[in-house]
Specification:
- This protein has 339 residues and is α/β, with parallel strands linked by helices.
- 55% of the residues lie in helices and 8% in strands.
- It is built from 14 helices and nine strands.
- The strands form three sheets. A four-stranded parallel β-sheet has the order 3-4-6-9, sandwiched between helices. Strands 5-7-8 form a three-stranded mixed β-sheet. It has a two-stranded antiparallel sheet with strand order 1-2.
- Its main location: other.
- Keywords: Isomerase, Peroxisome.
Amino acid sequence: MMRATVEQFEEAKSRMSSLKQDPGNDVKLKIYALFKQSTLGPCTTPRPGMLDFINKAKWDAWKALGETPQEDARQQYCDLIGSLVSAEGGSVAAKPSGSASAQYETLLSVLQMYDEIVTALEQAGKDNSVLTVFTGAGDFYCSGNDLTNFTKIPDGGVELMAKQAGELLRKYVKAYIDFPKPLVAVVNGPAVGISVTALGLFDLVYATERATFHTPFSQLGQSAEGCSSYTFPKIMGNAKASEMLLFNKKLTAAQACDFGLVTEVFPDSSFNSEVWTRLKSYAALPPNSLALSKQLIRSTERERLHAVNDAEVELLVERWTSDECFTAIMNFFQSKAKL
């Protein structure tokens, strides 16, 4: 029995030594402590046992915050996450590379920001192009919203941030609803969030076989967007739509095609050559005929889609200001910083 205890002590001591040697663990402990303080308040749990070095280090970090108010801890948590992201020169979520400015060609627009996409759609809707294609640069079609935006709280507070984000989202989705020409999505890799929900507003969706489609809204304390609360049940039925929008189910390209969200799936090795050859042939079709035919197909639902967009934005603004949403976002960051 004594030998087992000594072995346990030596193992625990070794783990504690490793913990101390890694300076990154100080930051992880700080993140852990601020997360606990902001969600549960001051530490009132019993101190872990003498040999439980890792949990003891976590407990000490939390206890050291004393009576720091939860709101202060929440702000410190946001500031710390924001500083780490800035120091890395990027964001927690991987983003495809691309030009920072809008560049327009016959079939391709490379864009990064919501406002730029809205502007690009407005211009593409008026120019002499026949159709408009969205695709990603690199391995991803789109990796979703940058969750570190939730750590950048303006002077007006969370309510102002949520209101501004809601108006931008409303404008963004409206640009898709009102777009007069055929819209094509060329999904070259994994897609997350609004890049998936907006697909219900596209006229064609082509995907590589390695693409996936994920809408983790409830996991992040949020709700549906991009008119998906209407288009997804209509496209794939209530049960399949609920799996995606309520229970965060990630679809493969084949599943998305079976459910009707994707038009056709292509082998990854020939994806670009097959798809772009086909799209160039579509671009040779009579433009007025395509635009008028699209309007005929879509016009009966335009008002309904605008109403759905308004309702989704209203709910999302409420969600973004809720403690549940903030805690879910912090849980996400906490999972990235586990010891």
